[in-house]
Predict the 3D structure of the following.
Amino acid sequence: MKRYRKFLIPDYGEVAPEVEILPPQILDMENPKEWRVKNNYESLAGMTAAYQKCSCYKKIMQVKTEEVWCQLSERNIRTKIYMPANEEKNPVVVFYHGGAFSMNNIEVYEYVCRYLSAYGNLVIVSPDYDLAPEYKFPKGLMEAYDALIWTAANIEKYHGDSNNISVCGDSSGGNFATVVSMMARDQRGPKIRNQILFYPLTTNIEDEITDSERYYQTGYFLEYNCMNNPMGAYFNEEEEKRDPLASPLLSENLSSLPRACFISAECDPLLDQGLQYAAKLEDSNVEVEYHIMKGMVHGFLNQTYGKSFEAMNIAIEFIQR
């Protein structure tokens, strides 16, 4: 049985008092499109109400946005670009939203992208890739990589520095960010300077339940136990889960990848996956920085807790360093 060391041993503490544990999101597999419309609208409405009460709201609403259709290898993909108020040549971040490869859209991450752009002077590129179960592995991933290609070729038009591109994502979007980094290395694609991974999903194959899953598998928003095939809707067949493009933790070659910043939630069943992948990157001589947000649960990035803003500021500082 394959065992992986962890980058560090966490405390597995309790949820912070200010955290509201929302009901788990369960996609209606019979009517996924209709379910997403309702869920995305409710998510955006809730975040708008929360952000309007924050001192940062005025500043983040000064970020300029432009919606474009990126010409990719198979189809055009709707993409939103966020630009800071200055017109200097700014660092670029391609941001991949999370949602178990099957939920959410770029609007759900509107305020995350706005905050990163406003406070980091970053150009953010957010592609609305296709989702499972309608589009299975590796469709969304290929679009994520094509979005990187498009960004490198076109971002100068939007005051972005094509020689300073990072990738970023949360949960399944974090999976995309690190896999896109592997693809760019192997295909001699665009140079990626940094990968910023918020509570990433790094494997769809586990031999036994991890400690973080044992502690937090139910009752902490994300309902996740590796033994229950939680990402089954993303795959056509079982063997695909072992592909390093689906489970980067299984990759035999993690050398020469961009330096990585992990920002995890303490009370998250995916915590150990991030810690294991970070250790494997470190063993491959990749520079790694790890932060665990005490008392937070999966998905906290889309909330307005102090730790939510702290996490985004850590990402900004890592990119600017």
